[in-house]
Every structure is written in structure tokens, then in C-alpha cells.
């Protein structure tokens, strides 16, 4: 049974995993039509701008966020992708997200911004790699993936 003090960091990890999974599903749907057909009813090729490129970014970086690998960088990319989608597609038809159908893009953008700020939490490959100082390769990868100057994620002590 986990201590009560460990539940908020685990909750952060679960939040990251769920949001990343939803984004990866969105990207997979855009590119392959799996698990369901995309909103427009047709899939996009990888070379289609912006749908195919956005689908690829959503799938790849969504999976990285789920795994907790390069979490902050992946979350920044996804936050920017969703902000671009909101301002380039939805903002043209109305000011507020409820009026222009952009609630999903706005929520994803802010959700990934939160993940980029607070980090991956304890249930992440970033955290696992950072805790193994005897693993030279893991330490190098961890240093490469974690930008310097950013505070540690919640649960990384």
C-alpha cells in the first residue's frame, strides 16, 4: 500500500500517461484510421500538410509522453502543435473555443504545457534513467533528454 504522500506524484504520472495515450490515439487515427476513423472520415498521408505532419507528431510524441521518455521536450512540441491547430483552424470561425469547435485543441495544448512545466512524475523512463548513476549509457541518455536549467519533476528526488 503506497503512502498517502506518494499519491500526488503518481497521479501526475497517470495524468501524463492518459493525456499522452489520448494524443497518440488521435495521431494514429489521423494516419491509419485505427482505432477509429478520423473526424474528417479520411486518413492523411505523412506528406500532407498540415494533417499528415500533425498526425505523425501526435503519434510519435504522444507515445514518448506515455513512456515518459523526453517528456518535457515532447510535451512542448505537442503543446505547440495543438496551439497551432487552434489558431490556424479554429480561431478563424469564432473567438471562443466553445464557438469555434476548438475545445479539444485548447485543452490538449494547455494539458501538454502543464506536463512540460511539472515533468513526468515518478512512473517514467526519464525518472528511471535518472536514478541509475551506475548505468553510464542511461546517465548519458538522461542528461541528453533533460534540458539543463529546468527544475526536477514532481516525484524526482
TrEMBL record:
Chief localization: membrane
Keyword Ribonucleoprotein on entry: no
Which key words are in the record? Cell membrane, Membrane, Transmembrane, Transmembrane helix
Transmembrane ranges, per UniProt, are: 12-36, 56-87, 107-125
Membrane topology recorded in Swiss-Prot or TrEMBL: Multi-pass membrane protein
**What is the top-level taxon of the source organism?**
Bacteria
Q: Which InterPro entries match?
A: DoxX, DoxX-like_oxidoreductase
Q: Which family does it belong to?
A: Belongs to the DoxX family.
Protein's UniProt name? DoxX family protein
* Originating organism: Catenulispora yoronensis
Recite the lineage of the species: Bacteria, Bacillati, Actinomycetota, Actinomycetes, Catenulisporales
Amino acid at each position: 500500500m503506497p503512502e498517502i504522500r506518494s499519491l500526488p506524484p503518481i497521479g501526475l504520472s497517470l495524468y501524463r500517461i492518459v493525456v499522452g495515450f489520448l494524443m497518440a490515439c488521435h495521431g494514429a487515427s489521423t494516419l491509419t484510421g485505427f482505432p477509429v476513423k478520423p473526424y474528417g472520415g479520411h486518413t492523411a498521408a505523412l506528406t500532407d500538410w498540415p494533417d499528415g505532419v500533425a498526425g505523425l507528431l501526435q503519434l510519435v510524441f504522444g507515445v514518448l509522453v506515455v513512456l515518459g521518455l523526453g517528456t518535457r521536450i515532447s510535451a512542448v512540441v505537442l503543446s505547440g502543435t495543438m496551439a497551432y491547430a487552434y489558431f490556424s483552424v479554429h480561431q478563424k470561425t469564432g473567438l471562443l473555443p466553445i464557438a469555434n469547435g476548438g475545445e479539444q485543441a485548447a485543452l490538449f495544448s494547455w494539458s501538454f504545457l502543464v506536463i512540460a512545466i511539472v515533468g513526468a512524475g515518478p512512473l517514467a523512463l526519464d525518472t528511471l534513467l535518472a536514478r541509475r548513476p551506475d548505468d553510464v549509457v542511461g546517465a548519458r541518455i538522461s542528461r541528453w533528454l533533460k534540458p539543463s536549467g529546468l527544475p526536477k519533476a514532481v516525484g524526482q528526488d
